[in-house]
Amino acid sequence: MRTLYVSDLDGTLLRPDGRVSAYSLGVLNRLIEAGVLFTYATARSLSSASVVTEGLRMRVPVIVYNGAHIVDARTGERLASETFSGEARAHVQGLLQAHGVSPIVYAFVNGRESVSWDAEQVNAGKRFYLDSRRGDRRLRRLEGADSLFDGEVFYYTCIGMSSELRPLYGALAGDARYTCTLQQELYRPEYWLEIMPRRATKADALAKLRALLHCDRAVAFGDSVNDMPLFRAADACYAVKNATDALKRMATGIIDGNGDDGVARWLAWHARAGE
């Protein structure tokens, strides 16, 4: 039986310092070299994920932007993508403006992946995010919102306090055109509202990747609410000890926490090439 192992990054594979430990790198690289099909599924971009997983020698395509894209981690080639239709994009834009929320917009503008924001609408949480990505060639700083929604848009991130974002989340969460998540940022007091096309989920991306790799079975690892679709789509799923209670209730089992290399330790005992 051909098995695909897929792990979330932040709070799951990454330690509390936001990196993959030397122990996990050693275990995972040995398994990958032996032919185990291991990958990750993250809300991060490939650019950001590549920094925090430095040293991990990926061979299997990875799932980024919560499932909006499947990409070859070595070349950056997009193997599958989900983007907003023009009508859905216009609807989201109207709601954002009506609720007074200025998002970070992820899009392909003139064929280039871009992260755009209005420099006149920057709060502390957004500033922290942007400062942490200085030097990122995707960054597209705008003075005003005139060009904010240009291009082939596939992802919106709204950063703010819960009270600011919950009304917008309420207006979008029940709409069949979108997938939305609202959760507190792992390392900060702010909340993130992420708005994606309906089929931009870790579950949909996992189904596509399984088909691409001809896998009979998938085993997933996670810690938070955005991993729930991944858990539903997997044949077996394991929550790290530090996971939310809701995710633990969905899990096949509970493993050691991210600070104790739970994913790598489980894989070291259970994962075998071709199984």
TrEMBL record:
Top-level taxon in the UniProt lineage: Bacteria
GO CC terms: cytosol
MF GO annotations: magnesium ion binding; phosphatase activity
Family matches, as InterPro entries: HAD-like_sf (IPR036412), HAD_sf (IPR023214)
Hydrolase recorded as keyword: yes
This protein's UniProt keywords: Hydrolase
Record-given protein name: HAD hydrolase family protein
Source species: Candidatus Onthenecus intestinigallinarum
Phylogenetic classification of the source organism: Bacteria, Bacillati, Bacillota, Clostridia, Eubacteriales
